[in-house]
Amino acid sequence: MAAGSRHVDSSPPVSPDQYARVRVANIGPLEQALSRVPLDCSGGDSGRCSLSVAYALALTQKFRDELLPAPPCLAPSDVKLREALSELDSDLHAASLDNSLGRTQLAGDSNLRASDELFASETCANPTSSSAPVSKPSRVPTPTAKTSTAPAAPNVLLDKTGSGTSKTAIFITPSEWEIDYSFDCTGFGYKGNFQIYVYDGTGALKDIQANALALKGSDVIYEHNLSGPYYLQMNSECDWHVIVKG
Tens of pLDDT along 46-93? Predict the structure, then answer.
């Protein structure tokens, strides 16, 4: 390289949509894990507390590693988010050494909430890119040749309407089934999180079938080769409607 020449970064700038997708994919699981830490550390079970702290710390570090440079229109919320992740990293490291620190609210929580509020109010040149729900792509069955007999309509295994965080009753599924969902955060006042966790009959987490941050959204998610007793847990600040068919 000739003297005095400067290296120019030729990588394309990060779009609001790219940044928002990484944020949405990480923020919901992290906030859910953080909400569990005080509960898991208040019951006198040090093993449970340590696992909860370690899980939240791993998600915090994963988020920091994956977070992209923010486009200018999302810079205010990004600054708060990076402050929150730095504080949480420090607080969770301390709590891993002294479980009693996990019983109180972590300092990074306030900056995380402030970042959420800023992110909800920010607009970019393409406003739909940062507000569109980001959830698991629907896994659509491969179409087959038409026959003269129409396929039987799937049975409704669960139909639940609610708001906030809620678990369903256990239902029995065939091998192929689906989850139809919609959520609406207009009553919340700005974009909110919406997640669907799938647990088997023993309480073991099997899948996370929705993870969105938006004003409202809907989707149909297909499950394949997964029969047995299951139940769902919805985590959200918003109103939602979930139907399971199989």
Answer: 777 887 888 888 888 889 898 999 889 989 999 999 998 998 888 888
Is 7 inside a domain boundary? Answer: no
One domain for residues 79 and 167: no
- Which string of DSSP letters, residue by residue, matches 131-170? HS---PPP-PPPP----SSPPPPPPEEEEEEEESSEEPPP
5 in a domain, yes or no? Answer: no
Global pTM reads 0.49
Contact between residue 175 and residue 226 where contact means Cβ atoms under 8 Å apart? yes
CB 129 within 8 A of CB 74: no
Task: Please provide residue 151's backbone torsions phi and psi, each rounded to the nearest 5 degrees.
Answer: -65, 145
The domain of 59 spans: 16-131
